[in-house]
Amino acid sequence: MANKTVIIAVVNKAYVEQGDDIYPTMLDLFLESFWVGENTRSLLDHLLIVAVDQTAYDRCKFRRLHCYRLTSDGVDFTGEKFYMSDDFIKMMWRRTLFLSDVLKRGYNFIFTDADVMWLRNPFERLSKNESEDLQISTDVFKGNPWSERNCINTGFYYIRSNSKTISLFELWHGMKGNSAGMKEQDVLASLMKKGVFRELGLTVRSLDTLYFSGFCRDSRDISAVTTVHANCCRSITAKVADLMAVLRDWKTYKGSSMAGKAKHAANETFRWCRVGSWKKYKISSMASKAMHAANETFRCSKHIACFKSWRVPNKTLY
C-alpha cells in the first residue's frame, strides 16, 4: 500500500492442516472471507502470512501467497497450542517480538488472527486520522472508544509505526519475563489500565463491536459489521464449524441484499408504458419492501459449536 501498510496473519500447522483430512481448514475460511467480502479481494495483495512451522509455510507457498517463515530456537510451534500452555504463551510472545521488528522497519500494519472473517474492507471503517497510533478490537466495547475500561483483544488491530508505538512494543515484550501465567494480551491490557499508554503519549482507539465483532459480542447490525472474530471459543474444530456458519449467513445476506437492491433499482427506473405496468410496479415494490424487511430482521446463526466447546474438559484452545 502507498503508506507502507501491510496485513499480517500468523499460522501454524493446526490452522492449515487439520487431522483426518478435515476440510475446510481455518486458513481456507480466512482466505474465503476475502473472496466473498465486500471490497476485500484486492487486499490479498497486501497480506503477509507468517508461518511458524514448515508445514504452514509449505501450504502458504502452495497457495502463492506472500509468505514468511518465522523460526524460534528450541520451540516447536507445529501442533495445536492449548490455551495458556507454556508453548501457547511462548508463541504469543514470539509473535509480539516479530511484530515489533515490523514496526521498527517503518511499516504500519493490521494484525489479524486467522480466525477473523473479513466481511468488509476494514480500511473503509478504521479512522484515517494519523494522530491515532493504535486502533484495537475489543471483546466487550463499553461505548467510549477512548476508555481504558474496554476489554481489548489483540486478535485484530491497526497500528502505525512511530517512536511511540515502537516504545510500546519494546516495553510490552520486555514484560515477558515478569508476567508468569499471563498471555501477551493480558499484559497489554494491564499496561493500558496502569496508564502506560497515556505516559507514552499514545492515542489508542478501541473498536466498536458493532463493526469489529466477535463471538464474545456479536454485532447488532449485519449491514454494518466489518469483521467477525471467533473469540470466546475453546477449540479450533469448534471455531471452524461456527465460522463456516458465519460465511454461510454472510452469503445468504449478500444474496438477499443484492436482490433487494435490484428491485429498488427497478422501481427507481420504472416508466409508465402499457397496460399492466401498475400491477408489475406493485409486485416489484412489495418484493423490494420484503427484501428490506428481511435485511432489517436478519439474524446470524448461534455459535453452537463454540458454546459447546466450553463443556469439554482440558480442551482449552484459543
From TrEMBL:
Pfam families: Nucleotid_trans (PF03407)
Domain (Nucleotide-diphospho-sugar transferase): residue spans on this chain: 43-243
Designated name of the protein: Nucleotide-diphospho-sugar transferase domain-containing protein
Origin species: Nyssa sinensis
